[in-house]
Write a structure and sequence with these properties.
- Residues 129-165, 421-494 are annotated as: Disordered.
- Residues 138-149, 479-494 have a biased composition (Low complexity).
- Residues 423-477 have a biased composition (Basic and acidic residues).
- By secondary structure, the protein is α+β, with helices and mostly antiparallel strands.
- It has a domain at 2-236 and 244-263.
- The protein contains ten helices and 24 strands.
- The chain has a 15-stranded antiparallel sheet that branches. Strands 6-7-10 form a three-stranded antiparallel sheet, with no helix packed on it. The chain has a two-stranded parallel ribbon with strand order 1-2.
- The chain is globular.
C-alpha cells in the first residue's frame, strides 16, 4: 500500500497492471445517463427546470455506484474523444410528478456488490405505457417474445423483475461494461417508439498537459440543451484514502437552455464536490463524495430573482459502513445580492428563503419536499439507473489521437492480462508525447487545441470550427437526415 500511495502522491506514471482499460477522457464524462441530460429543459416551469438540473447533477456520479473504481490512462496533449447516445429522455408522470425512466433500468447481476461494481452493471429496458411513449400492446408482446431469446450476457436470470416505475414491465437483461468493447446491444430501447428518441453528442479534448486540463461539450439539438466545461482534477492522499477534487481551472459544469420558449438563455453552473477513493487497505475500492456543491441559475428572462440549490454531501464515519447521505435546499436569490449569492451550505439559508428541501442517499434515492407541503416526492431513484453504453465509432474510423485508437495497444494487452507488454506499449505512447513536446519547444511553438478555442479562462470552453464539424458529423452518423447546421452549435456568450 505504501508503494501505491507513494506513486499517487508523487504523480509518477503507474504500471499498466494498476490501470483500468479505459482512457481518461472517456472515463471522466458526465452523461452516464444522457436521457436525464436531454430532459433538462422540458418544463415551462422555472422550479421544475431546477429540479431537472438537480437530477442530472446526481446522475453524473453514477459511475461511482455501478462501475469498478480504477485509474484510467493519463491523457496525452491533443488527445480527444467523442461518442453519442440515441435514446428516449426521461418524462415526468403527470399524476405523481415523479420521473419515468424509459431506458436501461438497473438489474443486479449475480455477485454484484451493493456499491463499487465489478466494471459493469446489469440492465434491462422497460416496456412502457403508450402515454409515456411506449408501443402498442401487440408490439410490446412481440418484443418480449423475441428479446427473451436474445439475453445472452446474463444467463440464468429470469424476466420476472419489476422496476418501481408503476407504468412498466421489463424485458431482456444485459450487461453494460464501461470502456472499450462491444457496448451496444441490438434494439436497447425496444419498448419506446422511435419518434420519442433524441441524440446526445459528447466531444472532449486534452487542451493542456501541465497542468492536465481537458475541455468538453455536450449537445442535444432536438431538445436545445448544451453542456460544457473544463476538467482539471486535483488529487492528494488523505489518511487511508485518496481525495480527488476540482482544480483551479475547473469552474464546474455549465448547462444552457438554447431552445426557444420558457427558460431560453438560462445557464446553470454546477460546481463539483470532492470524492475519495476508500478501501485501499482491503484492496476493495469504493468511492465516497463529500463537501458541498452549488447550482446557480443565471441568464434567461430578466428577473430580480433566480433559483439556486445547495447540496451538502455528508462526511462518512470511520466506524461502520458508509451511508452516502446528503441534504440540501432550493431557494430564490436576489440577482446582484452578494450575500445571497455567496451562501455555500444549506444551513446558511434563512427558512423564509427556502422553497424546497432535499434529502436522501446519492447511492440510492433522493427526495424533495416543497415548502408548505408534507409529502416528499422522489427526485431521482438511483436504484433504477444502469450505466447507458456509449456509441463510439469503430477504431478503424478514428484518427491517431482519438482516445480509443491512441491507447488501443495498451488496452488489448490489459484485456489479455499481458501486463509486461501493456506497460511497454504505455511507455511507447508516453515517450512519443515527450518527443513531441521537445520538438515544439525547439521550434518555439505552442500547442494549439483542435476542437476548442484557446480562450477558456472563465471555465467555459468555446467550440472551434473543427469542433462544430466533429459534432455535426456525429449527429449525421446517428441520423438519416442531412447534417444539421452549425448555427445550433454556438459557443456560450461571455
Amino acid at each position: 500500500m505504501k508503494v501505491l500511495l507513494g506513486l499517487m502522491k508523487k504523480r509518477i506514471s503507474l504500471p499498466a497492471s494498476l490501470l483500468e482499460p479505459i482512457p481518461n477522457l472517456e472515463y471522466w464524462q458526465y452523461a452516464d445517463r444522457a436521457d436525464i441530460f436531454a430532459a433538462i429543459g422540458d418544463s415551462s416551469d422555472e422550479l421544475e427546470r431546477m429540479l431537472a438540473v438537480l437530477r442530472f447533477s446526481f446522475s453524473k456520479e453514477l459511475k461511482f455506484i455501478r462501475a469498478r473504481l480504477g485509474k484510467p490512462y493519463n491523457s496525452a496533449l491533443g488527445e480527444h474523444f467523442r461518442c453519442s447516445w440515441r435514446l428516449p429522455p426521461i418524462v415526468i408522470d403527470e399524476e405523481t410528478g415523479e420521473p419515468v425512466i424509459r431506458t436501461h433500468i438497473h438489474v443486479p447481476i449475480p455477485g454484484e456488490p451493493a456499491y463499487g461494481g465489478q466494471g459493469g452493471s446489469g440492465w434491462t429496458t422497460p416496456v412502457l405505457e403508450q402515454k409515456h411513449g411506449g408501443r402498442t400492446n401487440s408490439e410490446a408482446s412481440s418484443i418480449v417474445s423475441t428479446s427473451s431469446k436474445a439475453s445472452k450476457k446474463s444467463p440464468g436470470v429470469g424476466l420476472g423483475f419489476k422496476q418501481s416505475n408503476k407504468s412498466s414491465d421489463t424485458i431482456s437483461i444485459n450487461r453494460a461494461i464501461p470502456g472499450p468493447g462491444d457496448e451496444i446491444e441490438a434494439d436497447p430501447d425496444a419498448g419506446v417508439v422511435d419518434s420519442e428518441k433524441v441524440t446526445v453528442v459528447f466531444l472532449c479534448e486534452q487542451v493542456s498537459h501541465h497542468p492536465p486540463i481537458s475541455a468538453y461539450w455536450y449537445t442535444c439539438p432536438e431538445k436545445g440543451i448544451e453542456g460544457y466545461g473544463m476538467d482539471q482534477i486535483s488529487a492528494k492522499v488523505s489518511g487511508m484514502s485518496v481525495k480527488v477534487g476540482p482544480g483551479s481551472s475547473n469552474q464546474g459544469i455549465f448547462i444552457r437552455i438554447a431552445r426557444d420558449g420558457p427558460g431560453q438563455g438560462e445557464e446553470y453552473q454546477i460546481t463539483h464536490p470532492s470524492a475519495s477513493v476508500n478501501g485501499i487497505l482491503k484492496g476493495s475500492y469504493y468511492g465516497t463524495i463529500s463537501d458541498q456543491i452549488q447550482i446557480t441559475c443565471r441568464g434567461g428572462e430578466k428577473s430580480q430573482t433566480k433559483y439556486r440549490a445547495l447540496i451538502d454531501y455528508k462526511d462518512e464515519s470511520w466506524i461502520g459502513k458508509p451511508r452516502f447521505l446528503l441534504d440540501g435546499v432550493i431557494y430564490k436569490y436576489t440577482v446582484g445580492n452578494e450575500t445571497e449569492e455567496g451562501w455555500t451550505k444549506p444551513k446558511q439559508v434563512p427558512a423564509d428563503k427556502v422553497v424546497a428541501n432535499i434529502e436522501g442517499s446519492w447511492m440510492k434515492q433522493i427526495k424533495y419536499r416543497l415548502k408548505g407541503q408534507k409529502e416528499w416526492k422522489t427526485l431521482l431513484d438511483l436504484d433504477l439507473l444502469a450505466l447507458i453504453p456509449k456509441d463510439v465509432r469503430p477504431i478503424h474510423e478514428q484518427d491517431e489521437h482519438e482516445s480509443r485508437k491512441l491507447w488501443d495497444p495498451v488496452t488489448q494487452h490489459l484485456l489479455s492480462k499481458n501486463w509486461g507488454e501493456a506497460t511497454k506499449q504505455k511507455q511507447v505512447i508516453e515517450q512519443k508525447q515527450r518527443d513531441r513536446a521537445a520538438a515544439r519547444k525547439a521550434k518555439g511553438e505552442e500547442h494549439e487545441s483542435r476542437f476548442f478555442e484557446p480562450d477558456w479562462e472563465d471555465g467555459k470552453p468555446r467550440l472551434s470550427a473543427e469542433g462544430k464539424k466533429a459534432i455535426e458529423e456525429e449527429l449525421f452518423r446517428r441520423s438519416s437526415a442531412a447534417p444539421p447546421s452549425s448555427a445550433g452549435l454556438a459557443s456560450p456568450a461571455v
